[in-house]
Structure formats: C-alpha cells, structure tokens
Design brief:
This protein is of the alpha/beta class. Helix content is 43%, strand content 20%. The protein contains eight helices and seven strands. A seven-stranded mixed beta sheet has the order 3-2-1-4-5-7-6, with helices on both faces. Helix 2 packs antiparallel against helix 5, helix 3 packs parallel to helix 4 and helix 6 runs parallel beside helix 7. The longest helix is centred in the last third of the chain and has 15 residues. It starts with 8 loop residues before the first helix and ends with a strand. The chain binds calcium ion. The site of calcium ion has 5 residues, from loops. Calcium ion binds next to loops.
Length: 221
C-alpha cells in the first residue's frame, strides 16, 4: 500500500482497512486493487477519501457532478455510485490509457451510463461547460489534476457549481511541503497559494481537511 497521508503508517493502515471494509463492493475493490499495483498507483485516492466524497455527494443531494483528473476512475466510481439513478458525472482527463481502465471498471460496476468522459485539457472542457450547460449547473466537483492548474480550476469550478455547491481539491498538503516556506517548488507554491486564497475568499466557506494528502473543501456561498 503506498503511503499517502501524513499519519504514522500503522494509523494509515488502520484507516485504510476500516474504510475499505466489508461494505466495499467487488467492482470497487477490484479497481482499487488493480490501480494500487500499478506504477503510478499512489496517485489514486484512499478508500477513506472515496468514502468522504460519497458522503459529501449524498449529504448535499448532488445530482450533477464534475471531476477534473480522473486517472483510472476510482474517485469517479465512488461519486457515481453515490449519485442518484438520474445523476450525471462529467469527467475531465487527457489520458486515454488511464481512462480506458476507468471505463472498463465503470461498466463492471454498472455506472457507465451516469458518467460522461471528456478527453481534452480540463481548462478547455470547463470553458465548454460554462457555455453549456452554463454557470451554476453542478452541485459538486472534485479536482485532482496538475497542481499548477488548480487556481484556474478553482475559478472555473466556482462558476460551475451552484451556491451551496462543493468543490474539493486533492493533495493540498502536498506531503506537508506547503508548510515549509523554504520549499519554492512550482507545485508547492501553487498549492500553498490556493489554500491561502480559499481561506480569505469571501465567495466561499473553506476548510483544509487533513485526510489523505490534504483535501481543500470549499462551499460556494
Ligand atoms: Ca491526488
């Protein structure tokens, strides 16, 4: 299991095992296991984060969801399963290789009809969505993509979600590097700036969750 949170390893294992408990269905487990064995498997969110996304989706009664950065589809599967039968999830990614794994598992889980995958730079797809179906059309968004692009995705997603809608950003603790002012690496700087911006942004309520590698959760006012 890749070490992905700031927790001591034994505690992280405890959380992971608890979260991927007996309620996890076989198609979800197969995708999670298959991805975890892959070269870039550490990019996949943890089972605890998948549970968090599903819980948020259900809590706000989301029907229209958005994902920026789909990889092999585990987070999208968690969100799609939490959406109602007529719910829709638009997924943005640029990799046909990774998302072909995603599409296979979405079919296996019977949620492929809820998911629309758009293979293009997310910035472009989000611009298209702002024209049709337009601003405020989504209830929920999850962003887990290129970190330098987060600020742009933040602005676009804030327009795309309705007031009261949620946007969650993954990896916003960046293995703790955001807390080290001496770390001036581009992704670290981008994530640190986004965390600071969200916390003083009058358009949102913000909370930096220390789950996984950090999840910045913002609610549009
Ligand atoms: Ca991530």
């Amino acid at each position: 299991m890749p070490h992905r949170s700031l927790l001591p390893e034994a505690v992280e294992r405890y959380v992971a095992e608890l979260s991927a408990g007996e309620r996890e269905t076989q198609p979800v487990r197969r995708l999670r296991d298959e991805t975890a064995r892959m070269r870039n498997g550490g990019m996949q969110i943890g089972a605890d984060q998948a549970a968090l996304l599903a819980l948020l989706v259900r809590t706000i009664g989301a029907r229209r969801a958005l994902e920026v950065g789909t990889f092999t589809g585990y987070s999208a599967l968690a969100v799609a399963l939490a959406l109602p039968a007529d719910g829709r999830l638009v997924c943005c990614d640029v990799s046909d290789e990774w998302t072909s794994i995603a599409r296979h598992h979405w079919r296996e889980a019977g949620v492929d009809g809820k998911i629309e995958l758009r293979l293009a730079p997310a910035k472009q797809t989000l611009e298209t969505l702002l024209r049709d179906p337009g601003p405020g059309s989504f209830d929920f968004a999850f962003v887990d993509a290129d970190k330098a692009g987060y600020d742009g995705y933040y602005e676009q997603c804030l327009k795309l979600v309705r007031p009261g809608g949620l946007v969650a950003f993954d990896n916003t603790l960046w293995s703790g590097r955001v807390a080290d002012p001496a770390d001036r690496e581009e992704d670290t700087v981008a994530l640190r700036a986004l965390n600071a911006k969200a916390h003083r942004d009058a358009r949102v309520d913000a909370c930096l969750l220390t789950v996984g590698d950090g999840v910045l959760l913002v609610r549009r006012r």
